[in-house]
TrEMBL record:
Organism placement in taxonomy: Eukaryota, Viridiplantae, Streptophyta, Embryophyta, Tracheophyta
Membrane topology, as annotated: Multi-pass membrane protein
Domain Cation-transporting P-type ATPase N-terminal: 139-213
Keywords associated with the record: ATP-binding, Calcium, Calcium transport, Calmodulin-binding, Ion transport, Magnesium, Membrane, Metal-binding, Nucleotide-binding, Translocase, Transmembrane, Transmembrane helix, Transport
Name of this chain's protein: Calcium-transporting ATPase
Organism: Amborella trichopoda
Length: 1079
C-alpha cells in the first residue's frame, strides 16, 4: 500500500514555483532567487551572486564560515604545482638516464645518515618512492631485499613492541603533517570589532567623551561617551568569545574527519590503527575502496587497480604489479586487493606536502545560511531606512526648536546655543540612529545557522554520526525517503553459518564433517582458504583463532575452521595465479590456484542462485560428480528459497579443474585472462544468519510516523530481503508483496526512464540490486520531487551517495571511497543512528526558526517604538547603551540560547520540512506579530502616558522621565526574556517542557536577568537609568509575563483552523494523529 507521504506535494510545489519563477522576488527560495543555492555542487557564479547582493556590516565575520572562493583557487594552484613538480622530477630522471645510456640506480650519497639498526636511510627511500625508481628497487633486491634492509617480515609485518614503533617513528618520521595554526582568540576579537556600525559608534563615543569632559569636567563628563564605548567593548568581547568557542568545535570535528582507521599486519595479526600511527616498514593490506595511507612498494597484488587522480590530476586507473610497484599516498584502490611495504610517511610523501599546504578548512555555506542572508538583507534595508528617517526627524525637530532636555528646556535656540553643545547633541542623535541600524540589521541571523550546526555536529558525534558536509544537517530535516542497505544497517552484521546444503542434502549441524567425504571437505576448505580477502591468525597458547575480514568472510572462514581447515597450510601448498575480485554487479568472486605442475583449480563463491546457474555438475557426499539435471536444479533452488525465507543470506561454493596449458603463463596475459565461469561443479550452499538490530523496528516506525518512507535496497536474494523487511517493520502484513512494491534490480533497470519514475515511489524492497540500480532509484525518486537519503558502504555505492540529497556511509564496514563520497558517516552502521540524524536535521531547521521568530520580534518592536517616539515626541525611550544591550540579548545570547536546543520527540510527529517551505511560517507570523504588537502597544502607552500610569506626576519632570524610561527599558528586556521561552516552542502549548534539561538556555536566561538587575540597580550612570522600587519591578515582570496568558488561547484557534498551512503535506488522518500525539 502506498503511504500518503509518497504522493509528492513537494513535486507539485516545485513545479508551481518553477512555472511562476519570473515573478519571484530575490528573497524567495526558488532556484532562480539570488539567495538560493543547491545543497550540493553549487555553481561558483551563484556563490558570487548572493555575496554581492547581501547587505553586510561585518564581512570578515559574516563570511567566516562560507567557502573562501579565493582560497579555493589558491588550493588548486598548489595542487597543480606539486603534481607538476613530481612529474617533472620523474621525467628529468628518465631523460637523464636515456641521455647517458644507462638506467638510474640507487643514489650514491644521502644527506642524512642511515639510522641505527637499518640498512637504508629515509632520504634514499624517499627519493626511490618519489621518482618511482624501479632500477633502484631492483638494485636493493626488490621488495624482499628492501624488507630485509628495513627489518620487516613481509608475512607477519612488524612486531607489536611499542619501543620498536617509536624507534622507527624517530628514524623515518611520523605519518602526520603540520596543520596550519587556527586563529587565536584575539583575531576573533579583531574581526568582531570590524563591524561598520560598531566602528561608527566608537567614533561617536570618542567625540561624545571629548565634548563631555570639555563641558562638564572629567568627573561627570565621561559617562555618556564612556558608556557607549564600554557597551561596544562588551558586545565585541561576547561576540569574540562566542565565535572563538564555535571555531574550536569545528576544529575538533575536522580533526576527527582526518583520523582514518586503516588495517596493518603486526605480529602476524591484522590490527586497525589510526592512519597517523603508520610507520616505515609496516605491511598494509589493501582492498577495494581503501585509501593508500603512505608511500609504499607493492608486496603482492591481485588485479590491483589504483586511482591516482588525487595526485596526478589524471582520472586514469593505473594497474599495479611488479613492473610498476610504487604506490602513492592519498590514492584510492578501485579494484583488486594486495599488500604494500611502507617506505615513506608524512612530509616525506607528496600527499603530505599537499595536505600541509592546503590543510586549513576554508568553510562551506549552506542553503539555509544563504537564505538567511537574504532575510537579513531585506530586514537590514528596512532597518537602515527607518534609522535614516529617525535621524532626519530628530535633526529637523532639534534645529526647529521642538526638542527639549529632561528639564523641559528647549535644547536648541538659534544664535544662543553654543557650537560645542550643538555638536554634542548631534553626535548623540547620530549615535541613536546608528544604534538603530545595529539592532535592525540582524548580522547574527546567518551566523546562527553556523552556531546551531556546530552544536548539532558535536552532539551528533555522541549519537554516532560524523558530519562531513554542513548542509547535510539541514537537508536531512527535509528527507522524505531513506534508501537503506540491509546488511549491517538494519541487521547486526554478526554473521554465522547456521545451515549448510552439502552433497545434495542438508547437513545438521553445518560443521558436521561426518556427512561429508574427505574429498568434499578438502575442496570446500581449499576454496574458503584461497578465495577470500580475510585472514586467520592462530595465537600461541591454544587461544581462539583471530578471524578478520568482512562479516561475510569472517562467517565463512569460521565455518571453515569448524570443518578443520588449516588456513596457513592450505595457502602455502598452492599458489594464486589470478583473482577475480568479488564484484557487486556479478555478485561473485573467484580465484585460480596452481596445485601441481599440471593441475589448476578455479574456485568461485557468491550469490547462491547465480553460482547455481553456472553449474553443470554437483558433488555428492561421497565426492562423486553428477550431471545437473532439471530436478536437481529445482531441489537446490528449493533449498535456497527455504534458507532465504528464514532470513538467511545464501552463498554457494563451486569449482572446476583446469589444465595448466589452458592458463596464460605471462604476467601480462594473466592480467587480461577471463577465468572460466561456466561448467562449474557445485560444492555447497550455506545459509548465513545476520539478526536484525535491536530497536530497528521502533526506528522504522518512528520514520514512518515522521513521514519518511524507508526502502530497503540490498544485493541479497529477494526472498531474504522480503523476510528481513517483514522482520524489521519496513513491510507489514497489510502491504502488497508483488512488483513493483517488491522488485528485483534487473526488473527495475529494464524499465525506461519514465517507467522508473512512475514505479520508484511504490518500491519498498529491492533485492538483488546492483550499485547502479541504487543510483537509478535515487535519480527516479529525486525527479519525482523526493528528498532522498541513501546509505552505502562499498566503493560502487559512491555514485549513489554522491547523487542523493544526503549520502550516508557506514563507519565500520564503509570503504574510504564511500566515506569520501558521503555527506554523513554513520559511525556504528546502525539504522537507529540514521533516524537520530533525521531528528537532528529537523532540529537544525526548527532551532533557526525559533531564533528568527525571537530576533524579528525584537527587531520590529525596537524599530517601531523608537520610530514612533522620535516622530511624535522627538525623544527615543531606548538610548544607545540600552539598545546595544538589547542587541546583545537578541543576537549572540539569543542565538546561544535558542540555536542550541536539543531535538524533541515532537519533531518526529510532523511532516518533513519542505525544501521550499517559507522560513517564516504562519505560526511564526502569528507569534511574531502578537508579541511585537503587544510590546509596542504597552511600551508606547508607557512612553506617552507613563507619568500618570506609574504615578510619577508628583515628581520633578527630569526624575519622572528617568523612572519612566527605566521602566520602559526594563519591561522591554523582560519581554525579551519571556519571549525566549515563547520562542522555544512556537507551535506547542507547553513552552516549559524540558526547559530545565537545557542548562545552556537556563544559564543564558539567568545571566541576562542577573545582568539586567545589575544594570538597573548598580550601573545606572552608564545606562542612564535609575534604581527601581519593588513596585516598578513587579510591573516590569507583569508586562513580560502577560504574554504567557495570551499564548494559551491564540494557538488553539490558529492551529485548528490553519493546520493545512503548518503541515502542507499531511492528510486529514495524519493531522488527527498529530493532535492525539500532542495531547
Amino acid at each position: 500500500m502506498s503511504s500518503p507521504w509518497n504522493s509528492s506535494p513537494y513535486r507539485r510545489q516545485m513545479d508551481e514555483e518553477r512555472a511562476h519563477g519570473d515573478d519571484l522576488s530575490p528573497f524567495d527560495s526558488d532556484d532562480s532567487g539570488l539567495f538560493h543555492i543547491p545543497a550540493k555542487k553549487a555553481p561558483i557564479e551563484k556563490l558570487k551572486r548572493w555575496r554581492q547582493a547581501a547587505l553586510v556590516l561585518n564581512a570578515s565575520r559574516r563570511f567566516r564560515y562560507t567557502l573562501d572562493l579565493k582560497k579555493e583557487e589558491e588550493k588548486e594552484q598548489i595542487r597543480r604545482k606539486i603534481r607538476a613538480h613530481a612529474q617533472a622530477i620523474r621525467a628529468a630522471l628518465l631523460f637523464k638516464a636515456a641521455g647517458e645510456g644507462k638506467v638510474p640506480g640507487p643514489p650514491q650519497e644521502v644527506t642524512r645518515p642511515v639510522p641505527d639498526g637499518y640498512g637504508i636511510g629515509p632520504d634514499e627511500l624517499v627519493a626511490m618512492s618519489r621518482d618511482h625508481n624501479l632500477p633502484a628497487l631492483q638494485a636493493h633486491g626488490g621488495v624482499k631485499g628492501l624488507a630485509n634492509l628495513l627489518k620487516t617480515n613481509l608475512e607477519k609485518g612488524l612486531g607489536e613492541d611499542e619501543s620498536e614503533i617509536l624507534h622507527r617513528r624517530k628514524a623515518f618520521g611520523e605519518n602526520t603533517y603540520p596543520k596550519k595554526k587556527g586563529r587565536n582568540f584575539f583575531i576573533f576579537l579583531w574581526e568582531a570589532s570590524k563591524d561598520l556600525t560598531l566602528i561608527i559608534l566608537m567614533v561617536a563615543a570618542a567625540v561624545s567623551l571629548g565634548m563631555g569632559i570639555k563641558t562638564e569636567g572629567i568627573k561627570e563628563g565621561w559617562y555618556d561617551g564612556g558608556s557607549i564605548a564600554l557597551a561596544v567593548i562588551i558586545v565585541i568581547l561576547v561576540t569574540g568569545i562566542s565565535d572563538y568557542k564555535q571555531s574550536l568545535r569545528f576544529q575538533d570535528l575536522n580533526d576527527e574527519k582526518r583520523n582514518i582507521r586503516i588495517e596493518v599486519i603486526r605480529g602476524g595479526r591484522r590490527l586497525h590503527i589510526s592512519i597517523f600511527d603508520i610507520v616505515v616498514g609496516d605491511v598494509v593490506p589493501l582492498k577495494i575502496g581503501d585509501q593508500v595511507p603512505s608511500d609504499g612498494v607493492l608486496i603482492v597484488g591481485h588485479s590491483l587497480a589504483i586511482d591516482e587522480s588525487s595526485m596526478t590530476g589524471e582520472s586514469k586507473t593505473v594497474h599495479k604489479d611488479q613492473r610498476d610497484p610504487f604506490m602513492m599516498s592519498g590514492c584510492k584502490v578501485v579494484d583488486g586487493y594486495g599488500s604494500i611495504l611502507v617506505t615513506a610517511v608524512g612530509l616525506n610523501t607528496e600527499w603530505g606536502l599537499l595536505m600541509a599546504s592546503i590543510s586549513e578548512d576554508s568553510g562551506e555555506e549552506t542553503p539555509l545560511q544563504v537564505r538567511l542572508n537574504g532575510v537579513a538583507t531585506l530586514i537590514g534595508a528596512i532597518g537602515i531606512s527607518v534609522a535614516v528617517l529617525v535621524l532626519g526627524i530628530l535633526l529637523v525637530r532639534y534645529f526647529t526648536g521642538n526638542t527639549k532636555d529632561p528639564g523641559g528646556a528647549v535644547q536648541f535656540i538659534k544664535g544662543k546655543t553654543k557650537t560645542s553643545t550643538i555638536l554634542d547633541d548631534c553626535v548623540k542623535i547620530f549615535a541613536i540612529a546608528v544604534t538603530i541600524v545595529v539592532v535592525a540589521v540582524p548580522e547574527g541571523l546567518p551566523l546562527a545557522v553556523t552556531l546551531t550546526l556546530a552544536y548539532s555536529m558535536r552532539k551528533m558525534m555522541a549519537d554516532k554520526a560524523l558530519v562531513r558536509r554542513l548542509s547535510a544537517c539541514e537537508t536531512m530535516g527535509s528527507a522524505t525517503t531513506i534508501c537503506s542497505d540491509k546488511t549491517g544497517t538494519l541487521t547486526l552484521n554478526q554473521m554465522t553459518v547456521v545451515e549448510a546444503f552439502v552433497g545434495g542434502a542438508m547437513v545438521h549441524p553445518p560443521e558436521n564433517t561426518e556427512k561429508m567425504s574427505p574429498k568434499v571437505a578438502s575442496l570446500i576448505t581449499e576454496g574458503i582458504a584461497q578465495n577470500t580477502t580475510g585472514s586467520v591468525f592462530i595465537p600461541e597458547g591454544g587461544r581462539a583463532p583471530d578471524v578478520t575480514g568482512s562479516p561475510t568472510e569472517r562467517a565463512i572462514l569460521s565455518w571453515g575452521l569448524q570443518l578443520r581447515m588449516d588456513f596457513d597450510v592450505l595457502r602455502s601448498i598452492s599458489s594464486v595465479l589470478h583473482v577475480f575480485t568479488f564484484n557487486s554487479e556479478k555478485k561473485r568472486g573467484g580465484v585460480a590456484i596452481k596445485l601441481s605442475e599440471s593441475e589448476v583449480h578455479i574456485h568461485w563463491k557468491g550469490a547462491a542462485e547465480i553460482i547455481l546457474a553456472s553449474c553443470t555438475q554437483w558433488l555428492d557426499k561421497d565426492g562423486v560428480e553428477h550431471r545437473m539435471d532439471g530436478d536437481k536444479i529445482a531441489e537446490f533452488q528449493k533449498a535456497i528459497d527455504e534458507m532465504a525465507a528464514a532470513s538467511l543470506r545464501c552463498v554457494a561454493f563451486a569449482y572446476r579443474v583446469c589444465n595448466v596449458e589452458g592458463v596464460p603463463q605471462g604476467e601480462e596475459e594473466l592480467e587480461q585472462w577471463a577465468m572460466p565461469e561456466d561448467d562449474l561443479v557445485l560444492l555447497a550452499i550455506v545459509g548465513i544468519k545476520d539478526p536484525c538490530r535491536p530497536g530497528v523496528i521502533e526506528a522504522v516506525r518512528l520514520c514512518q510516523r515522521a513521514g519518511v518512507k524507508v526502502r530497503m535496497v540490498t544485493g541479497d536474494n529477494i526472498q531474504t530481503a522480503k523476510a528481513i523487511a517483514l522482520e524489521s517493520g519496513i513491510l507489514d502484513t497489510g502491504m502488497p508483496c508483488e512488483p513493483p512494491y517488491i522488485i528485483e534490480g534487473k526488473a527495475f533497470r529494464s524499465y525506461d526512464e519514465k517507467g522508473r519514475e512512475q514505479i520508484a515511489p511504490k518500491i519498498t524492497v529491492m533485492g538483488r540490486s546492483s550499485p547502479n540500480d541504487k543510483l537509478l532509484l535515487v535519480q527516479a525518486l529525486r525527479k519525482r520531487g523526493h528528498v532522498v537519503a541513501v546509505t552505502g558502504d562499498g566503493t560502487n555505492d559512491a555514485p549513489a551517495l554522491h547523487e542523493a540529497d544526503i549520502g550516508l556511509s557506514m563507519g565500520i564496514q564503509g570503504t574510504e571511497v564511500a566515506k569520501e563520497s558521503s555527506d554523513i558517516i554513520i559511525l556504528d552502521d546502525n539504522f537507529s543512528s540514521v533516524v537520530k540524524v533525521v531528528r537532528w536535521g529537523r532540529s537544525v531547521y526548527a532551532n533557526i526558526q525559533k531564533f528568527i521568530q525571537f530576533q524579528l520580534t525584537v527587531n520590529v518592536a525596537a524599530l517601531v517604538i523608537n520610530f514612533v517616539a522620535a516622530v511624535s515626541s522627538g525623544n527615543v525611550p531606548l538610548n544607545v547603551v540600552q539598545l546595544l544591550w538589547v542587541n546583545l540579548i537578541m543576537d549572540t545570547l539569543g542565538a546561544l540560547a535558542l540555536a542550541t536546543e536539543p531535538p524533541t520527540d515532537h519533531l518526529m510527529v510532523r511532516a518533513p520540512v519542505g525544501r521550499r517551505e517559507p522560513l517564516i511560517t504562519n505560526v511564526m507570523w502569528r507569534n511574531l506579530t502578537g508579541q511585537a504588537l503587544y510590546q509596542v502597544a504597552v511600551l508606547l502607552i508607557l512612553h506617552f502616558d507613563g507619568t500618570s500610569i506609574l504615578r510619577l506626576k508628583s515628581r520633578p519632570r527630569a526624575e519622572a522621565d528617568k523612572v519612566k524610561n527605566t521602566v520602559i527599558f526594563n519591561a522591554f528586556v523582560f519581554c525579551q526574556v519571556f519571549n525566549e521561552f515563547n520562542a522555544r516552542k512556537p507551535d506547542e502549548l507547553n513552552i516549559f517542557e524540558g526547559v530545565l534539561k537545557n542548562k545552556l538556555f537556563m544559564g543564558i536566561v539567568s545571566f541576562t536577568v542577573v545582568l539586567q538587575i545589575l544594570i538597573i540597580e548598580v550601573l545606572g550612570k552608564f545606562t542612564s537609568t535609575v534604581r527601581l522600587s519593588w513596585y516598578y519591578w513587579l510591573i516590569c515582570l507583569a508586562i513580560g509575563l502577560l504574554r504567557f496568558v495570551k499564548r494559551v488561547k491564540l494557538p488553539l484557534l490558529f492551529e485548528k483552523n490553519n493546520m493545512k498551512f503548518i503541515l502542507p503535506a499531511m492528510t486529514s488522518n495524519e493531522r488527527s494523529r498529530m493532535y492525539v500525539c500532542k495531547s
